[in-house]
Amino acid sequence: MSLAEEVELLRRIPMFANVEISKLKLLAFTSERVAFHAGDMLFTQNEMGNSAFIIVDGEADVTVDTPNGPLTVAKVGRNDFIGEIAILCDVPRTASVVAVTDMTTLCISKDLFFRMVTEFPQMAVEIMRVLAQRLENTTRQLREAVAHGASHQT
Q1: What is the β-pairing status of strands 51-57 and 60-66?
Q2: 3-state secondary structure string across the chain
Q3: pLDDT for 104
Q4: How far is CA 105 from CA 33, 53, 76, 93, in A?
Q5: Residue 79 CA: distances (Å) to CA of 28, 55, 59, 89, 144
Q6: pLDDT tens for residues 78-124?
């Protein structure tokens, strides 16, 4: 993929949509292209993270560990941005991500990510939106699971 194609890919991601072309070129140039095969782990829950990923192509499952084994909580694909929670909050990874298909990603280091967020406040706002939406989805799923469990106990 050419630099121009990577820049166009970045522009399709909401948090990068309003960023200047020159800055997107810098992001594309300084990020690392990483390929994964179906079944590969992009990262594992509870490990410390030092990068986030933009999915260029392919699909992955987001899973969390439970007493009954891994539970898939989301599916991610082209143009999705994953792994940012661990680098934003300096916490271990909150979930595991496993490739369902062969994947191509752009890996963005923690330093580069923070530089971009600092230079572009609108990117920080978009990240907050994405995280708030994920929190709302997780809260709804938890509410549904608790309600489902309560209905089985009666």
Answers
A1: unpaired
A2: CCHHHHHHHHHCCHHHCCCCHHHHHHHHHHCEEEEECCCCEEECCCCECCEEEEEEECCEEEEEEECCEEEEEEEECCCCEECHHHHHHCCECCCEEEECCCEEEEEEEHHHHHHHHHHCHHHHHHHHHHHHHHHHHHHHHHHHHHHHHHHHHC
A3: 93
A4: 6, 6, 12, 18
A5: 14, 5, 10, 22, 28
A6: 988 899 888 888 889 989 999 999 999 999 999 988 888 888 887 78
Query: What pTM was estimated for this model as a whole?
Result: 0.80
Is the distance from CB of 73 to CB of 41 less than 8 angstroms? Answer: no
Residue found under tokens 């280091």: 109
C-alpha distance across the termini of the chain, in Å: 57
Both tokens of residue 71? Answer: 């539970």
Burial status of residue 121 (CB atoms within 10 A of its CB: 0-12, 13-18, 19 or more): exposed
123-147 confidence digits (pLDDT tens): 788 788 878 888 898 888 888 888 8
The amino acid at 58? G
Q: Which of 19-28, 32-41, 104-113 has the lowest mean pLDDT?
A: 19-28
Q: Quote the tokens at residue 60.
A: 């992955």
